[in-house]
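Chapter summary example.
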Amino acid sequence: MENTAARVQNAVELYGDMLFRICCVMLGSAADAEDAVQETVVKYLQKAPAFADAGHEKAWLITTARNQCRDMLRRRQRHPQVELSYLPGAPADATESGILEALMALPEKFRLVLVLHYVEEYRVEEIARIIRLTPSAVKMRLQKGRRLLAEKYRKEYL
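The structure predicted for these 158 residues follows.
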């Protein structure tokens, strides 16, 4: 168990920030992102998977975090809640550029590839391997995601 705990601690130190950023973008909430990362770590502890290399471990963590976010989003759809920031009279942060909000409004399949490519700096081939698509499918999602993001941003924030 000590070996597994050390592996988990090492993985959290190496990949925790990246997983948090991915989950935050997918879920739109830092608190929900923390929960998703925590659940991902719990699954890592429970399953204690063996990995061929660090890249495989990283891909497993990203996939598991993505699936956890999807589960949380499904739960939200079944049990909708109102965010406090959307209530009338809630103060808005004037320094926000709107890019994050526009990104959050995109469908998950575009949001994920955009974050992995532009924020986490993965190459197309690596993204394809992580999310189990062909590189051409990833390129198409990047292309369409950029177009949708630009349209959404122009429409809502310019």
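To summarize the output: The chain has two domains: 1-81, 97-158.
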